[in-house]
Amino acid sequence: MTPRFSTLLPALLLACALPAAAQSNSPQVKREQVGNRTSENIPAIPPALMEQLNRYQNTRGATFAGWNGDCMLISTRFAETAQAHRVCQPLGMREQLTFYAEPLAAIEAAPAASKLDGFVFGKDVGGNEFWQLHWFDLKTRATTLLSDGKARNQGPLFAHDGSRFAWSSTARNGKDTDLWVMDFATKKSRALVTEGGLWNAMDFSPDGRQLLVMKYVSAAEAYPGLVDVDSGKLTMFPVDGGKASFKGFKFAPDGKSVYFISNEQIDDRAQEFHSLRFHNPATGKFEVLTASTPWDVEDLEIADDGRHLAYTTNEDGIYKLHVLALPSHKPVKLPELPIGLVVNLGFSPDGKRLAVTMNSATSPSDVHVVDLGKASLTRWTRSEVGGLDPAKFVAPTLVHYPTFDTVDGKPRMIPAFYYRPANVPAGKRIPVVINIHGGPEGQSLPTFNPTAQFLANELGVAMLLPNVRGSEGYGKTFLDLDNAAKREDSVKDIGALLDWIGQQPELDASRIGVYGGSYGGYMVLSSLMHYSDRIKAGIDVVGISHFGTFLKNTESYRRDLRRAEYGDERDPQMAQVFEQISPLNHADRIASKLFVAQGKNDPRVPYSEAEQIVKAVRGNGQPVWYLLFDDEGHGFRKKSNVDYFGAASILFWQQNLIGAEQAQPGS
Q1: Which residues does the UniProt record annotate as the domain Peptidase S9 prolyl oligopeptidase catalytic (predicted)?
Q2: What is the pTM for the complete model shown?
Q3: Are residues 270 and 346 located together in one domain of the fold?
């Protein structure tokens, strides 16, 4: 349920014809502009490196997007961007359906019970995240715009018979994310919930007359409710304990009971983890279905025939699939699944099969189907790995290292996934890159990472992915440990990781790099601010350099969401904390080599955050590599851009981390 996207660039920034850093007269800045790419101080990429990287950059995955009769819709990339495709049998031919220059966002297939044959998809322009929703008719291959063409639209959801369609939109005032509903036959739409804040449509009742909704405030706070679709009457449900987090929320097959995922109090006792729950308001029956699981439940899906419910648990970064028979809630026997990530659950129209997307550290995402009657697993897609030998891919190990504070008198342990190159000669110490996730409520998972594989197999570099305090998946207490004034405690967890690296006989503590995007970019800058004497180089991607300017310039529809996590810059005490912890104010302490990469259309972390840190660090005599894409937003999604950034990143590590003896491809 956590919103992953948001924002707009201020008019002042849009008026800037050239990046501020590019306007510097410093002789140190060597600027090159090629198409939509502006690069500063980035050397020419050696052709040999591009050739060596080619196979890793041509790996691709496929994700499940919905059933279409006996066929299924998937999202995968065959050119520049991820598009919608259809597959009609296991390992069958993929029929590409959309051919846009921009990647598709959400894909919502028409329900099997409807007379519709097609799907709704979202698409933005240049990564600005102002998604517009479109209907793709599979019979005519015609595309129809459903949204207003201007606002930010997300979360498409069909009623079970396809007659109604709901979504979230900022169309009313540009700030609040309201709920809208459309009569799909006439395409007439109206605002349904306009209470202010960010609202998500969760599930229509079987008759389509009611809609379960959720008001999202933060990763730790959400409020569920029910809307009568005809009258618009909104009824909010009580939240046990007053404040809790919710994820999935769906009607039971009877249309009266509900299944939901929450960490609400139970019998006046606080809960650390999100559990799967059942509630019948009419009878008062309440049941916690995962009471014995000390981990978060992540997702749930219910079959159209009402006979099965599927859910996943996140157990120390490993997603495990479970299926219950309804209404008995008895577990259903499943085939053994590979260890990794299981997402995008979807029952077939007849309810007898369950499609999932599976990803592991040694295999890109692919779609598999579980036959519930036979307890068998069938692979439907086989994505490419660029001609590489998957047997040589490195699988990470889960490690835990002690940090600066204690729990019950013992050191708090921080989990991290460790990609270690194979066949490291005895006595040799290898460089290491620390990859820090964003969010900050995100979580690093053991997924397929072509960069980690390239570093390990081609350059002999290790990668560590820590889940510092504030990460999801480890309980409510852990999630709240970095809030507001405690922000730099998560940076101290990186300092503790530096200590741990120094204790590992195979790792070279004199050659450590840090990498991160978004909030992870802030973590990179802050780590360099505090530990430049221990970190050789860092790559900051779309990162926050000053929380005050970030909150001022991020898009209005997400500003309050970020204040709930980071603190309110309008509060003088919090503003003072931001002044103390923001890397921009301490750029003189960043002595490590720095590479900053940014999308100009970023609505979440405006590109001014990148430009001001580049300018400040350069002002202290430090050279900085800077990369700006005019056609990207919060991260890079177009293959040519991704490839260039990936190659520039490897070149940066070669020159500033690995050392001359390993700096050339093929060494």
Answers
A1: 447-656
A2: 0.91
A3: yes
